Amino acid sequence: MSTKKGQEAEEKAARHLRWHGYTMLDRNARGGRGELDIVARKADVLAFVEVKRRPRREDGLLAVHADKQTRLRSAATAWLARHPELTQLQCRFDLIIITPGKLIPRIEHLRDVFR
Q: How many domains does the chain have?
């Protein structure tokens, strides 16, 4: 994410993940045909996390369309090629959607959103 609001959303997502026991391994990792917002690990799971800040939850879901999924898979493959020591972990693609709340933003972590 390149905008200030996007960077703030990624930082909120990273804090949320750390709070839930994930270790941040990489941020804004470019490779293949895409970019990975966050690469995080929890136990034997390696999560490639896409972060979307949207006015509505549905908008965040729609933003991870087929072409975006292809680019994320390409970026994840390139990332794993640079980190062969982690290829034995279970890999998944997660989505964090940040939407406005009454007092604070709502953070929703969806696990294994596509394969």
A: 1
User: Which distant-in-sequence residues (6+ apart) come within 8 Å of 97 by Cβ?
Assistant: 52, 53, 54, 57, 60, 61, 107, 108, 110
Whether this model's pTM surpasses 0.90: yes
Contact 106, 60 (CB under 8 A): no
Q: Provide the CATH number for the domain around residue 99.
A: 3.40.1350.10
pLDDT in tens, 88-97: 999 999 999 9
